Amino acid sequence: MPDDPGHGRPADAGEAATDQKEYERLAKLNKVYLAIISRYKDHIEEKERISVAELPILVMPKGPMVVKRIEEIKAALGSYSYDQHFYEASVMAFSFVRDRIEDAVLPLQFWLTPEDTLTFMIGDLMDKSILLCSLLIGLGNPSCKVLTCTRAGLQRTMVYCEFQGRTHSYDFAVGMSAFDSVEGLRKSFLVGDEASAYEFNDKMYLDLV
After folding, report:
1. Domain range spanning residue 139?
2. Greatest distance between any 2 Cα atoms in the chain
3. CATH number of the domain bearing residue 186
4. How does pLDDT run across 35-73, given as a tens digit for each residue?
5. Is pLDDT of 29 > 70?
6. Total structural domains within the chain
7. What is the pTM of this model?
8. Closest CA to 146 of 159, 161, 128
């Protein structure tokens, strides 16, 4: 029997129609979920609320998915040595979070853990900073901290750590920089009279302003 040049086309069209119906179904479900979330927004935020002093509980360098990502970074560098490879590993971690974690602002105040952020590959600036801090601590540097300040309703957040006599910053807005000291970094980052400023990691929390 000669080949039918149109063979398979009805099936392909049927699959496309099925895919379109599934897409439309998921879009409707998402609208329903958003309506439910919006209706109970105040209740959810009340249950979700934690004080800023409790933020260290969100930094999870030993979370299973965080550890898995850390091992992947180490494997890419061969035989990992903290003194020789940490900076390069930190660049890889920063690039991964910056490029692979999609930016998103949720319609309510809801904290994502690093495990959540890696599961869904999505998060806001604070979620991404907490994930990066977790990765850097897991790579062997306990000095890593999330630094944030708020002024006139605008929030700035970045991650920094000390390594081999320098203070390295990882800022998703401006990129990476190096300073002679933590004080120099803070002076550069905390510009003007901030309404609030603080830093934290998995072990500590400190008010700066």
Report:
1. 56-207
2. 82
3. 3.10.620.30
4. 655 655 555 445 555 677 788 999 999 999 999 999 999
5. no
6. 1
7. 0.78
8. 159
Is position 2 within any domain?
A: no
Look at residue 108 and tell me if it is in a domain: yes
Tell whether 25 is covered by a domain: no
* Nearest of 108, 107, 104, 147 to residue 127 by alpha carbon: 104
Structural tokens at position 102: 């999609």
What is the arithmetic mean of pLDDT over 186-207? 86
Amino acid at 174: V
Q: Do the Cβ atoms of 101 and 120 come closer than 8 Å? A: no
Residue 18 placed within a domain: no
Identity of the residue numbered 80: Y
CA 154 to chain centre: 19
Rounded to 5°, the CA angle 48-105-92 comes to: 100
How far is C-alpha 41 from the chain's CA centre? Answer: 23
- For 71-108, the pLDDT digits (tens) are 999 999 999 999 999 999 999 999 999 999 999 876 55
Q: What percent of the chain has pLDDT over 90?
A: 59
